[in-house]
Amino acid sequence: MKLSIWTYEGPPHVGAMRVATAMEKLHFVLHAPQGDTYADLLFTMIERGNKRPPVTYTTFQARDLGADTADLFKKACKEAVERFKPEALLVGASCTAELIQDDPGGLADALNLEIPVIPLELPSYQRKENFGTDETFYQIVKALSCTQEKTKKFSVNILGPTALGFRHKDDVRELKTILDDLNIDLNTVAPLGASPSSIKSLTKAHANVMLYPESSELACRWLKENFGMPYTEHTPIGINSTKDFIEELNKIRGVKDSFSDTSRLNFDWWSKSVDSNYFTGKRVFIFGDATHVATASRIAKEEMAFSIVGIGCYNREYARKIRSLAKDLSVDALISDDYLEVERRIADLQPELILGSQMERHIGKRLGIPCAVISAPFHVQDHPARFSPQVGWEGANVIFDTWVHPLVMGLEEHLLGMFREDFEFNDTAGPSHLSNSKSKLNEEKETGADNEIRWAPEATKELKKIPFFVRGKAKRNTEKFAFENGHSAITKDLLYEAKAHYAR
Amino acid sequence: MNEHSKIENMGGCSEIPVLKERGQREVFCGLTGIIWLHRKIQDAFFLVVGSRTCAHLLQSAAGVMIFAEPRFGTAILEEKDLAGMADAHEELDREVANLLERRPDIKQLFLVGSCPSEVIKLDLSNAAERLSKIYFPKVKVLNFSGSGIETTFTQGEDACLASLVPTLKETDEENLILVGSLPDIVEDQLVELIKELGIKEVAVLPGRDRETMPSIGKKSKFILVQPFLTDTTEALEKRGASRINAPFPFGEEGTTLWLRSIKENYGISDDKFEIVTSAPRKRAQLGLKKLRTSLQGKTIFFFPDSQLEIPLARFLSRECGMKLIEVGSPYINRSLVDKDLELIEDMPVISEGQDVDLQLDRCRESNPDITVCGLGLANPLEAEGLTTKWAIELVFTPIHGYEQAQDLAELFVRPLKRKEALLI
């Protein structure tokens, strides 16, 4: 038993729903009690879905237990097939139904339906949402794939985009443009927009693009082992990762060099332009799903020249990848789905920018640290109306804008400094686009009642001249420096000695 | 699942037929009540003993994570708890110990049962008793079930309040208890009106903290402010309290009839009643008059959600002139809503339970001007061209009493107005 307050991932059957909802002509019968239908609103509200997810819940009640839950399940299957006329049926159990062990697969089989029935094993008490997407997509591919003649021209499938994925729909659109540039045919996208019959034609393609390993690695590996289809391992998010992805694709199809139209790419020049000087060495903490964290780390380091102070992911399946990346970056990896632990880490590290999920956005709000969202889980406000991919050249542009938006820009930073002494200038107001509330953390630090190190009045006065958004860090660093060097009082000089010591 | 659908006579004093359905239900389970209960009872923590699904539901229903550490959480059952490798009770004790150590402000702890905890027959009443022995008097430990196999949405609050009743202090004094959680501002308004009528001892269940929970005895009277409190009513009656039956205080008429039931029970004079109620009544009438024109003659279809549907249907048909097509409720306790039902003219289809696909067929067929439904259905129906009202707003928004009558009507006007205003 483990106390959980806010969770990054739902149960595995929500992962299965993300696959089913992304697809067409597929229906999912979920053996579940009343209340599990809450999951529908994730799709209809967060993604503003205009259709109900294709899911029938059996809705068993206490009085059904031990009596006829199995019949209830069979009836739900029959009625769902009659009403929705799917090409294939997914069947599975949510956490409660798993306990009553009705065997949805066996029950559905006994109905002798005329369509393929794909049973799902979703261990709710061990695994989570991302496992559910990966496993469900894999089971669908495994159940429906068969040998097909390859397309004449080199073609690929894009595998991994699901419903409720972070910008998945836009990523597919951008990736299609890039494949077009490269003169590579697109065979099928799945699960997003695919039907069971288009899954059957996956094997016509020559290779697979594994767009998000979280939701398609099992399927890609199975297609490689059974149909000899190679797959790409680079996720094309960021300039350099996109270049590597194209190179990997070229290698697979045996082409030395190919043309990709980068005239749309602004990120590189934006990052080189003088205003961006102020991003150099910005201390950034990155947390989310492993794929987005890994690509964001590379962008942060190589394409923004930020300084990464910590990274982590909530999906344990990719812990190894994130740990080795952290080692390369000489930072600690945080592998955890405990939201409070992430908050503590961020509070300790005091980054200037957080790149995270909606959970980190909330943490950032409370600690007064700006945050840009780079990963699921996301809120309705991070599902914009405009085209906002993460993938490819346009994705890089979007990322630049998104990350820079919450930061204090170069000129603005100067102006804040210039007018700090002006009596009309409100030092606590903060950047206009951030919440008005004063950083809690800075407040706590400013009182510092339990601190044994004494601040001389002139040093306190000097400290107040430091912009409020770095004051907490300056105070903490100075105290640490004083402590380590055996000073019990902080003078103005010591403040500047510490500043010199921590200069980057 | 249509063989389960059948028209049944509800019996009793009225001959209103009810369409009873059983099939897929598109409603929340009782755990959802924790979202408002934890704000209402400010020294309580709600610890769900359940699965990741329970935690995910609470998070999704709560919407925005305003609090770093809200006063609710889920002790998530893991494989080892189920396989008997770990003693679930020991695990629970450890989690509770950690929690109470970290949150010394907690004075009441509710252990909340879920679908999985009930299926594995984890005895939470036993656990509450055991933990009470350790933590009482500093912390009172109670338990109730919010599981989906036992409770629908607002029935979670019913189960919570019912669990509180046996712990209320005994009194020989007369008092009047308002039962059901309301936003503080509405609660204050209603209590004030009742006090102005001349009733001195007025209490509210649930109290805002452990200290303000009401006392109860044979001379206690109580009146419900929410229609979904079947088990709580039974528990209060068991303690000897008697219920004042009334329509629910929605709208000007509803609030007046609700207050009048109290007035009559206490033998308060007509003059006094007039003096106390005339000003807020007039205000409510004035507010409603403006909105009535937008709602007059419009048709409405209720999907089952909170059990508030019948009293709200009464308000919308009588005070706003709307035409009821179907009023769906997850569960109908005739003895609690009969006063509202009696007032509904042109009886629509009253349905209990749900088979969502069949109900959607009926809804599309009748093409109502407004459909009241859950968040899972709202956008899909809007995309089909129907105008919807989120049912959950009716639970989260202050809608009871005179001063909110206008706000209540406005909730239904807004989607209609928006539809008119949009030129796309």
Q: Explain this structure to me?
A:
- The complex is a heterodimer of chains A (504) and B (424).
- Chain A is of the alpha/beta class and 504 residues long.
- Chain A contains 21 helices and 16 strands.
- Chain A folds into four domains: 12-130, Rossmann fold, CATH 3.40.50.1980; 155-253, 3-Layer(aba) Sandwich (Rossmann fold), CATH 3.40.50.1980; 267-407, 3-Layer(aba) Sandwich (Rossmann fold), CATH 3.40.50; 435-502, Proto-chlorophyllide reductase 57 kD subunit B (Helicase, Ruva Protein, domain 3), CATH 1.10.8.550.
- In chain A, the strands form four sheets. A five-stranded parallel beta sheet of chain A has the order 12-11-10-13-14, sandwiched between helices.
- In chain A, α2 (39-46) links the parallel β2 (26-31) and β3 (55-57).
- In chain A, α14 (339-349) crosses α15 (358-367) and α19 (457-465) crosses α21 (492-502).
- Chain A starts with a strand and ends with a helix.
- Residues 429-450 of chain A have low confidence and may be disordered.
- Chain B is α/β, with parallel strands linked by helices and 424 residues long.
- Chain B has three domains: 30-151, Rossmann fold, CATH 3.40.50.1980; 175-266, Nitrogenase molybdenum iron protein domain (Rossmann fold); 282-421, Rossmann fold (3-Layer(aba) Sandwich).
- Chain B has helices spanning 34-40, 52-62, 79-82, 88-102, 115-119, 124-135, 155-164, 184-196, 230-238, 251-266, 270-295, 309-318, 334-343, 356-366, 375-383, 391-396, 405-421, and strands spanning 6-9, 17-22, 44-50, 72-76, 108-113, 140-145, 175-179, 202-205, 220-224, 242-243, 299-302, 323-329, 349-354, 370-373, 388-390.
- A seven-stranded mixed beta sheet of chain B has the order 1-2-13-12-11-14-15, with helices on both faces.
- In chain B, α15 links the parallel β14 (370-373) and β15 (388-390).
- The relative contact order of chain B is 0.12.
- Chains A and B meet through β1, α2, α3, α4 and α15 of A and α2, β4, α3, α4 and α5 of B.
